[in-house]
Each structure stands twice: as structure tokens, then as C-alpha cells.
């Protein structure tokens, strides 16, 4: 996030704080009036409970706006009032007066003083200091630092074929000058280079660092870990193995700082505050102020996790959580309560009703961001296990089909164009038979990684079956899609795979059709499959455009 947008977030947080101060001043005034009435025996059946809820809200929100002492004092008073508020029978004036004595009234009257004790300094006052991890490089630029220029060039050429944009540099200092925020990975030759050239921890936003070591001793590995290195591969390095290793580290790094969070809170200032803090940390946020909107918001936003207040007017978080679980689609959605309720019994009971965890208010901005980011990461990992193919990390068959179905509906609705393509490795049975299943797996992963690099983030990429893949390219003409797929075929054919001492290459056939020309997405996928068959018949290694205007445009190889 840029300096400018960070100061914009800081300005918004400051405004919210002012709004909170204003509202809290009014609430404390009303509370003081109510307490004075209670002391002379004037109160209706719900008045004590209302005073209790007012203190509860103050206790839960003050800390988030930097008024920690106010939050603690309100919490202490809330605890004293709780037995009266929860009494099943009407409480007698004597009971009320025994709790709301002179000392209690004095403390309520002095709550206002705590509003001048702004503790935001010790807290996280300015968003400028928020950990910012939201912006990930989209290019796959890789810096290679190697003392042997020939070997460096070999690495550059090999990684280029896997869709990376590698650059060889002679020293780590040169790499540091390059501007690491645009780099997706850094490959350094050995421990000594890392130790001599650069204190990794002094550089923020360091991309994943992989060391290619000649020696593979315990001490060398330990030294690498000490330098802050993320991965190690012993020389001589097999390029497809290196490419796959980098892919895994880059994906992990990207996913650890992203996530979609839905916040449900009836307090608009608190909702906005949490939203700004999480957005400044790189998360995508959807705010729900009225709990009645929760179902629509869920299906539109499809969050990784939900953060939910416990007490929201007539609605209670645990009941809402239980209600969400009625829908099979939301059974696995993690729900985290954000509440000032610190009674363990209550927390356990609330979790039994469909919640997964509790964050106790007041929660510092820093802790909130870290706790939510970690939970989002876990939720995404679990989701990935269910929806992603374990070998390639691409969408599984059924999910890829349903994404293509959505894209088809979108195209037909808006009159837009898109392309669907089926891809199949050529003579793959022979690869397995000659070089073994492990080598075959590396080829499949190689193609998956190549697709990830060559296609856009918005494209759908799925593993359709064993060595068959499906791809949908939204907002793309047939001509462009054809050019892109020809480039994928060309790169694939150029990758050298190794098995024992043997080198081999594998080619790819593609069939594609315009998605919007078909009545259903299944019809389009079938037609793309037929186009693929045509390409296989025509000699493989290339792209066939099918559909009504079927015409074979160009075959590579
Ligand atoms: N290593 C590996 N092989 C797989 C995997 N899934 C499927 N296969 C193999 O992929 C091969 C597909 O072979 P075929 O369908 O005969 O096709 P082909 O040899 O690629 O021939 P053409 O498609 O006509 O070019 C079979 O040998 C499968 O065992 C996998 O996950 N890993």
C-alpha cells in the first residue's frame, strides 16, 4: 500500500475515533442520568439491563479506539451490574441500591474523564505503521545471483521456459538495488554469498530466497536458515524441480497475506474501524451492519472467514451462526466471535452453536490483523485441500466446470466473449513407460506451473483428468486465445525434463472454442474436446480452433 493511501487510512481512523468520542460522551451522560434515577428507586423492568448493555458496549469498543483505561473501567462496572441485569425475576429497589451505591455512581460520573486519557500512542495510532502485506508482485520476476555466468545463463533460459522472467546479476548488492518489491523470488548461489553480501533481515518485503548449495551439510543448512533463506536445493539443480519448488514458495507467500473477511457488527464506527485496519493489512473486507443482510452478503462475497459481534440489538451472534449452518454451503465457514464477553462458559456455549473461535474485545489493531490473517490463511488452506488438485494445485474437475459455467452465464448475460480450451499432453503414456511415473508427475506439474505464469489471474485453470487440463479465458477473443495457447505449446515443447541421465521433452495439444457461442458450458467443453481430438489427429503439438466456424489455424512442430 502506498504512503498516500496509508495516510488516508490514518485520517479515516482518526475521524472514526472522533465519532466514537462524541458518541461515548453522550452515552456516558445518559448512563449517569439513569444511575441517578436508580439510586432513588426510579426504574422500569428493562432499565437496569439497558444500563448494563451500555457499559458492555463501551467496554468492548473503547479499547479499539485507543481508550484502554475507559474500556477497563466500563468492564469493571459492567461485571458489577451483570447479576442484576441477568436476574430472572424483577429486582427490588434495595437490591439495585446495594450494587449501585455512592461509589458506583461516582465511578460512572467519572467515566467521562477517561476520554481525555488517549492511550493511542502505546497502541497503533497511525495506519502508517500497520504491517502491510497486501501487495504482492504480479510479475514472476526472479533474480539469479551466480558467480559462474554460464551457469547463470542456463538457469535464466531454463526458468524462462517455465514462464518466469529471470534476470542474472553478479552480486547480491546489485540484486538489492533492483527493487525487491517487484521480485517474486531470489535465487542465490551459496551460503557464503548470502553471508558476505547482504543482511537479509535488514531488507523488508524480501521475496522468497532459494539457495543453490554445493555442499549439503547440516552446518550449511543451519547457516542458510540463520540468513533467513526459505529454501535450499543441492547442485546440480534440475530446472523443472527448481521451478516447481519456487512456485510452491511463491504461492505460499502470496496466500499467507491475503484473505476475504466479512465483519458483522451493529456498531457502525467499530465496523468501519475494523474494516480499515484489515484492509490496510491487505485483506479484502465486506462490512455488514445489519445482521438481517448476512445471507445475501455471504453469497455475494463468499468470505474465507466471518468476524461476528455477539450482541447486536435483537440478534445474538451464536443464533446467527447456528442459522448459517442450516445451509450446507456454509457448514465449513469459520465464524469468529469478536466480543467483550470473557466468561469461558459463555464462550464454550457460543462455540457449540456453530462458532469456531473467540477474539476478546478490546483487541489491538495489530493483534486483530495478525489473528485474522492467520485464520484466513488456514481457512484457505483447508478450502484448497477440498477444491484443488493435490499434484498441481489447480482447480479440481468439478470446480473448474462450475467456474466455466459461471463464466458462460456471465458472457451470455452481458454479451461478452470468452474462450474455453482443452489441453492434453502428447504420448504421455510413453513418458510414464520410459521415464517412470515420478518423471511423469513432474511433467504434469511443469505444465500446471507454466499455465499459471502464462495466463492471467482471472483465467480459470483446472486439471480435468490425468494429463488433461481445461482453461477458460474471460474477456478474450479467439485470436488472442490462440496466440496465448500457441505460446504455451512452444514453451512446453522447449522444457527439458530429466530422468536419471536421460533428457526428454514433451509436447502439448490444444482444442479451443468461443464459449459464448454454445447453449451450455458443457456443450462448449465438449466442442473444445472435439477440437483437441482434431489436433491429435493432425499430428499433435499445436492448437485447433473448433466450433461452428471450425477451421484449423496453425499447428506447431
Ligand atoms: N505420471 C502420471 N501419469 C498419469 C497421471 N494421470 C494419468 N496418467 C497417465 O497418462 C497416460 C495417458 O495416456 P493416454 O490416454 O493413452 O494418452 P497419451 O499416451 O497421452 O496419448 P495421446 O493423448 O493420444 O497423445 C496414462 O498412461 C495414464 O496412466 C498422473 O497423475 N501422473
TrEMBL record:
Cofactor(s) for this UniProt protein: Mg(2+)
Molecular function (Gene Ontology), one example: protein kinase activity
Domain Response regulatory: 141-250, 260-376
This protein's GO CC annotations: plasma membrane
Documented EC number(s): 2.7.7.65
Membrane-spanning ranges: none
Keyword Phosphoprotein: yes
Protein name: diguanylate cyclase
Organism for this UniProt entry: Marinobacter similis
Catalytic activities: 2 GTP = 3',3'-c-di-GMP + 2 diphosphate
SMART domains reported for this sequence: GGDEF, REC
Amino acid at each position: 500500500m502506498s504512503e498516500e493511501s496509508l495516510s488516508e487510512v490514518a485520517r479515516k481512523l482518526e475521524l472514526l475515533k472522533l465519532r466514537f468520542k462524541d458518541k461515548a460522551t453522550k452515552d456516558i451522560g445518559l448512563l449517569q442520568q439513569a444511575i441517578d434515577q436508580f439510586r432513588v428507586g426510579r426504574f422500569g423492568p428493562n432499565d437496569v439491563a439497558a444500563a448494563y448493555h451500555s457499559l458492555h458496549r463501551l467496554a468492548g469498543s473503547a479499547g479499539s479506539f485507543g481508550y484502554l483505561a475507559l474500556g477497563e473501567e466500563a468492564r469493571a462496572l459492567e461485571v458489577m451490574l451483570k447479576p442484576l441485569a441477568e436476574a430472572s425475576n424483577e429486582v427490588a429497589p434495595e437490591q439495585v441500591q446495594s450494587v449501585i451505591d455512592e461509589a458506583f455512581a461516582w465511578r460512572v460520573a467519572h467515566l467521562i474523564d477517561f476520554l481525555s486519557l488517549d492511550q493511542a500512542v502505546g497502541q497503533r495510532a497511525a495506519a502508517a505503521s500497520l504491517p502491510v502485506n497486501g501487495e504482492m508482485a504480479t510479475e514472476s520476476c526472479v533474480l539469479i545471483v551466480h558467480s559462474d555466468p554460464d551457469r547463470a545463463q542456463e538457469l535464466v533460459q531454463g526458468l524462462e521456459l517455465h514462464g518466469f522472467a529471470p534476470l542474472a546479476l553478479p552480486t547480491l548488492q546489485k540484486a538489492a538495488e533492483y527493487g525487491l518489491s517487484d521480485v517474486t523470488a531470489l535465487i542465490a548461489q551459496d551460503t557464503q554469498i548470502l553471508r558476505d553480501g547482504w543482511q537479509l533481515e535488514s531488507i523488508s518485503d524480501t521475496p522468497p530466497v532459494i539457495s543453490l548449495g554445493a555442499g549439503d551439510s547440516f552446518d550449511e543448512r543451519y547457516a542458510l536458515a540463520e540468513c533467513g533463506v526459505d529454501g535450499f536445493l543441492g547442485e546440480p539443480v534440475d530446472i523443472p524441480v527448481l521451478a516447481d519448488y519456487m512456485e510452491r514458495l511463491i504461492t505460499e507467500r502470496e496466500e499467507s497475506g491475503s484473505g476475504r473477511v466479512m465483519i458483522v457488527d451493529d456498531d457502525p464506527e467499530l465496523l468501519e474501524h475494523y474494516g480499515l485496519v484489515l484492509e490496510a493489512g491487505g485483506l479484502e473486507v465486506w462490512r455488514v451492519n445489519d445482521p438481517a443482510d448476512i445471507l445475501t452478503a455471504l453469497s455475494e462475497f463468499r468470505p474465507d472467514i466471518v468476524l461476528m459481534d455477539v450482541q447486536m440489538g435483537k440478534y445474538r451472534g451464536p443464533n446467527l451462526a447456528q442459522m448459517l449452518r442450516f445451509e450446507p454451503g456454509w457448514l465449513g465457514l469459520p465464524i469468529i466471535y469478536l466480543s467483550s464477553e470473557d466468561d469461558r462458559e459463555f464462550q464454550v456455549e457460543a462455540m457449540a452453536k456453530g462458532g469456531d473461535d473467540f477474539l476478546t474485545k478490546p483487541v489491538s489493531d495489530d493483534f486483530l490483523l495478525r489473528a485474522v490473517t492467520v485464520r484466513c490463511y488456514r481457512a484457505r488452506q483447508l478450502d484448497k485441500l477440498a477444491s484443488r488438485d493435490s499434484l498441481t494445485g489447480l482447480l479440481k474437475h468439478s470446480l473448474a466446470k462450475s467456474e466455466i459455467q459461471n463464466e458462460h452465464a456471465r458472457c451470455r448475460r452481458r454479451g461478452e466473449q470468452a474462450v474455453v480450451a482443452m489441453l492434453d499432453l502428447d504420448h504421455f503414456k510413453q513418458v510414464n513407460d520410459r521415464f517412470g511415473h515420478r518423471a511423469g508427475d513432474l511433467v504434469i506439474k511443469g505444465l500446471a506451473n507454466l499455465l499459471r505464469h502464462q495466463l492471467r489471474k482471472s483465467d480459470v485453470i483446472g486439471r480435468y483428468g490425468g494429463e488433461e487440463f481445461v482453461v477458460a479465458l474471460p474477456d478474450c477473443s479467439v485470436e488472442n486465445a490462440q496466440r496465448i495457447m500457441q505460446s504455451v505449446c512452444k514453451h512446453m515443447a522447449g522444457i527439458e525434463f530429466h530422468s536419471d541421465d536421460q533428457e526428454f521433452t514433451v509436447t502439448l495439444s490444444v482444442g479451443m472454442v468461443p464459449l459464448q457461442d454454445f447453449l451450455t458450458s458443457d456443450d462448449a467443453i465438449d466442442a473444445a474436446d472435439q477440437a483437441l481430438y482434431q489436433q491429435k489427429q493432425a499430428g499433435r503439438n499445436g492448437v485447433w480452433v473448433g466450433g461452428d466456424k471450425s477451421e484449423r489455424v496453425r499447428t506447431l512442430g
